[in-house]
Design a protein that fits this description.
alpha+beta, Jelly Rolls, Phage tail protein beta-alpha-beta fold, 3 domains
């Protein structure tokens, strides 16, 4: 019973994006232990109505959730299970995450023997996690979904691969009215998918793409937010368009990166595209400056490094660097007065703990970092 309630507690923390690295490993160990564990995770998680912007998680029937966990057979979990008192049991098991006045609160205790004094401050990198919103409004948490077929819409099968990637496979004629899906990531998440036409897409943290499950019209149109990398399957009879932040991008057979976090910037890696009617060649970037489109030469390796699993900092100041890091590591950034305006040059793998990035940046002795939970203070 205590073990099942511990799992409920971990699922609660996952949905609120407050798992520690140790807790994330504990939950992943449990998910990998048995296929039934992933099925239960998906059932509980998908009963939450996640808002499209992922900013809130609404509660569902607490009694039903508690009953699921009570009835579920215990299975191995590698970490020692700590004792939990009943008020916390009731809160954790019910998985109530957004509560009105008078609701329950989910509390956490550190594992026995763990103290703030003997635990180094560090933050693990993001991982492959996303939420798929189907045409009927149902939301599927990809992390908890089993591999293989997860849904079928408009004669198109949606599969999840062993690597956690979504793959759309059209098996028949699509409906005349396209069915739209949206795939989105939160802070600390990334994901990949292959659209029904074979186009490959990768999403960075806090990004999204909306697209038809099958392309049956005269063209193919998707819209994105955040940062997305495309390898478009070229089809002269059915051009591919991407809409985002004041730009409309038309593929002419290509690979390109779209960054719409703030100012919308489209960078061409291979092939050819037009952006708002202006043609780009590989190595060029189209950026919006008000209503004007500015085209310039850029280092494509630096721009697209995130999609290859690395950060390439090439003459950026600490504010620009931390803007990238905060989304991937799900952190809050504060700056001390008179922080350095020094330019930094470094290449760091994105699968490293944040301390490794800070070590490389701090090597110049021009900037230092203080980690307090998920808050990072940048100091001179």
């Amino acid at each position: 019973m205590e073990q099942n309630l511990r799992i409920a507690d971990l699922i609660s923390a996952y949905l609120q994006q407050r798992l520690t690295p140790d807790e994330e490993k504990e939950l992943n160990d449990w998910l990998e232990a048995r296929p039934e564990n992933r099925e239960l995770f998906g059932t509980i998680a998908n009963e939450h109505n996640l808002d499209a912007d992922l900013a809130a998680i609404k509660s569902f029937d607490a009694a039903a959730a508690l009953e699921k966990i009570r009835q579920f057979p215990q299975s191995p979990i590698r970490k020692k299970i700590i004792a939990i008192r009943w008020p916390r049991i009731a809160a954790a098991a019910s998985i109530i995450l957004c509560l009105s006045v008078g609701g329950y609160f989910i509390l956490h205790k550190k594992p026995i023997g763990q103290t703030a004094q003997n635990q180094p401050q560090d933050i693990a990198p993001g991982s492959n996690k996303a939420i798929l919103t189907l045409a009927n409004g149902k939301k599927i948490i990809i992390t908890g979904a089993s591999n293989g077929r997860i849904a079928t819409q408009s004669n198109t099968v949606i599969n999840k691969t062993a690597e956690g990637k979504l793959n759309y496979e059209q098996t028949g004629d699509a409906q005349a009215e396209p069915m739209m899906n949206t795939l989105s990531t939160q802070m600390g998440g990334e994901t990949s998918l292959t659209l029904a036409d074979g186009t490959e897409v990768k999403l960075d943290a806090t990004s999204s793409i909306s697209y038809p499950v099958a392309f049956n019209g005269k063209d193919r149109r998707v819209s994105v937010t955040g940062q997305v990398y495309f390898k478009v399957k070229h089809n002269t009879k059915q051009p591919f368009y991407v809409s985002t932040g004041g730009q409309t991008i038309e593929d002419i057979g290509t690979e390109f990166n779209v960054n719409a976090y703030e100012t919308t910037k489209t960078t061409l890696v291979e092939g050819s595209i037009t952006v708002n009617g202006q043609k780009l060649i590989p190595g060029q970037q189209a950026a919006l400056a008000g209503s004007n489109l500015i085209i310039s030469e850029v280092n494509t390796d630096e721009v697209t490094g995130w999609a290859q699993g690395v950060y390439q900092f090439n003459g950026q100041d600490i504010h620009a660097i931390m803007d990238q890091i905060k989304r991937w590591y799900n952190i809050e950034v504060k700056y001390a007065p008179d922080v350095s305006t020094e330019k930094f040059y470094a290449t760091v793998a994105r699968n490293k703990n944040i301390s490794q990035i800070f070590y490389n940046l701090g090597y110049t002795q021009k900037v230092h970092f203080k980690i307090d939970g998920r808050r990072v203070t940048v100091m001179k």
